[in-house]
Specification:
By secondary structure, the protein is α+β, with helices and mostly antiparallel strands. It contains two helices and five strands, in the order ααβββββ. It has helices spanning 3-33, 37-47; strands spanning 53-58, 63-71, 75-80, 83-88, 92-97. A five-stranded antiparallel sheet has the order 4-3-2-1-5.
Length: 112
C-alpha cells in the first residue's frame, strides 16, 4: 500500500482524539464549576417549570422532551409519554418550555 493513504487516516485519527480530549476537559471543568451556588440557582429555576412540557438540553447536546414532575437536590424527574426519567442537574445547560404557535398547538419544528 502507498503511504499517501496512511497520512490522511492518521491525521483524521489525531483530530478525533484531540477533540475528545478537549470535550472531556470541558466537561470536567463544567462539572466542577457548577457546584454550590450555581447548582442552587439552576434548581430554583427548574422548579418554575414544574408541570410544564419542556425541552431540557444537556451538556453533550442531547435534548430531552417531557413534563417536569419534580425537582430534587440534584435531579429533575421528567415524564416522557408515561415513562419517567431522572436527569442529573449537573449536566443540564438549558431548560426551555416547549414552543407553541398562536393557536396553542405545539410547533412541529423547534429551531434554535
Amino acid at each position: 500500500m502507498n503511504a499517501t493513504y496512511f497520512i490522511p487516516i492518521i491525521m483524521l485519527l489525531l483530530i478525533v482524539l484531540i477533540t475528545q480530549q478537549n470535550e472531556r476537559a470541558m466537561m470536567k471543568k463544567f462539572i466542577t464549576r457548577k457546584r454550590g451556588e450555581e447548582r442552587k440557582v439552576m434548581q430554583e429555576t427548574a422548579k418554575r417549570f414544574i408541570d410544564k412540557e419542556c425541552i431540557i438540553y444537556t451538556f453533550n447536546s442531547q435534548q430531552l422532551i417531557g413534563f417536569i414532575r419534580e425537582v430534587n437536590d440534584g435531579a429533575i424527574l421528567l415524564d416522557n409519554k408515561g415513562s419517567l426519567e431522572a436527569v442529573n442537574l449537573e449536566f443540564v445547560t438549558r431548560i426551555r418550555e416547549y414552543p407553541r404557535n398562536k393557536n396553542g398547538k405545539k410547533k412541529s419544528i423547534v429551531a434554535d
